[in-house]
Amino acid sequence: SDGDIHEPASIPLSEVPAGASVEVRQVEESQPDRLRYIASVGIRPGVHLTVVDRQPFQGPITIEVAGQTHVIGSELGQVVRCAGDGEG
Closest Cα to residue 44, out of 18, 85, 6, 13? Predict the structure, then answer.
């Protein structure tokens, strides 16, 4: 009512705990090849995904998107901003 737009808090996919389901809010990436790869595994704003597994020490992250499992690097996980929509 005061004209402010309040965005829900978002966190990088690389910080989402294993077993959690989240909604992708935005992808903070400008390199076309990386954007194409991110889109090729089904990651885009509005998509719901589940973090199946994450390796320690900035290791790869296993996600499930639309019934398919993919592994992405922690570096790409940092550019995908997510908001939680419930635990696993």
Answer: 13
Which residues in the chain show pLDDT less than 50? Answer: 86-88
Separation between Cα atoms, residue 34 and residue 3, nearest integer Å = 35
pTM above 0.90, yes or no: no
Neighbours of 24 (CB within 10 A): 21
- pLDDT tens digits along 45-67: 999 999 999 999 999 999 999 99
Residue identified by tokens 């294993």 is: 18
Are 61 and 24 in contact by the 8 Å Cβ rule? The answer is no
Residue 29, token pair as written in the block:
């990436």
